[in-house]
Structure prediction request, 520 residues.
Amino acid sequence: MKKKTKSLDQINDNTYDVKIDKPIYIGSLITILIVCGYCIIFPDSALVIVDIARSFVITKFDWFFLTIGIMILSVSVFLGVSSYGKIKLSDKDEKPEFSYWSWLFMIYFSAIGSSTLMWAICEPLAYLIKPPFGYEPFSAQAYQIAIPYGLFHWGPIAWSFFAFSGLVVSYCFYKRKKKRLQLSSVLSDVIGEKQANGPLGKLIDIASVFFTFCTFGPSLGFGVPVLTKLISNVTGLPANDFLQISVLVIWTLIFTVSVYRGLNKGIKVLSDINMWLLGALLILVFLVSDPLYILKSIVEQFGTFVAYFIPMATYTDTMSGGTFAQDWTVFYWSWWMVEIPFMSIFIARVSKGRTIRELLFGIIGAGSIGTMSVFWVLGNFSLKLQSSGALDLADIYNKQGPTEAVVQTINALPFGNIISIVMILLYFVFLATCIDSGSFTMGCIASKDILDGQQPSKINRATWAVTIALIGIAVLRLGGGLQAIQTIVIIVGLPSAFLLILLGWSLFNWLKEDYPKITL
Prediction:
């Protein structure tokens, strides 16, 4: 008779500690320290080098990024509606470890961080200034497309990157019974078992840790300045380097403690807190701004989003030679793909007992609705201020940057100080959750054989929580601006795209081998 496995809550954390994979652990630390050290000590030189690489990637591979986005969404929908969608990612009698909503909350808040709060306000403003499709700046067409393009960038294609890659690792871990939550193990059928366990496999896993590490460049680079400015706005403290470093230190303490406490006591609790805070913020802004305007805008913008989905997904602006798609869509697709090593392993760790259909459509659907809600409330309020002439947010964004645009938007709301405090709390917990789950995932990659339900050792998890603060300092030293962050993400995104193709190849080989008689 099969012995029943105890739940994670029933067993002491020490029972679930696993040994560190020292080559991956040490190799990843050295790589991170070298890259961050160079950026911190020689920021100007580092920015020149990575900008050359960025120009090469966006001019030669923009078509490739857009094609990958369309393909991944299409494949995800196909798998979800096909007979494969019924396959359960566990043994038949096993139930999910987490409730449905806790499962979605953990994935949602681990994926998007605090950046959506800033870009929901600022991205539509950027599209007014430099709109796509050759539209005139601040024209009626520019206003019409501003929110829908943001919905597109944070919508179904973005979440399909996470859902599909998470499905591959989940299938490998729960159905193929691989003992390691490492991409080298997932790719063992492609590169060979010997290579997966040898130097090539270690190199893949070190790269996975580094890619995961790089995902926090945008979150910290965007989040720290905004949070610092909000704190300064409420308290009167100067928004200087000292306050920024203090924010990083507090953040590091929060997610170090959370990571140290583990999955059930840390990430799950933070995700639940996030949901309440985000819900309170959106409801409060909706009620005190202009509810009727927002509701009318939602209906119109959803129609525009649907009508323009294919044109936005394929827009490269080849004829006029513009760089809108390269500056925005390629950047976003790169950002989401850089998160693949992180999100795929994290999704696998929390998705036991879900079906393929439930995983794909749950993540893509709930993720898209969540990010769209933020854009519809915060983004429409910022556009209302701009279009009515009450506040020239576009000029503030263009001349003073996104941080000031966010603060001025919040200040324009009734009860601005109260909403600022909610935003401060949400920023702290939002990004702590994202980095918390990233650190947990990096710990999984840097561990030896890890069984279903096990967790990395506490020192392993805490190490990565502390090192993530380094990329925050590195990005701030590079200027913390959009250009610096786009540069880092786009460069690392290219190899992540090829990794995604290999993951898909592995999954379809497994499905063909494991279910030869299945009907589509």
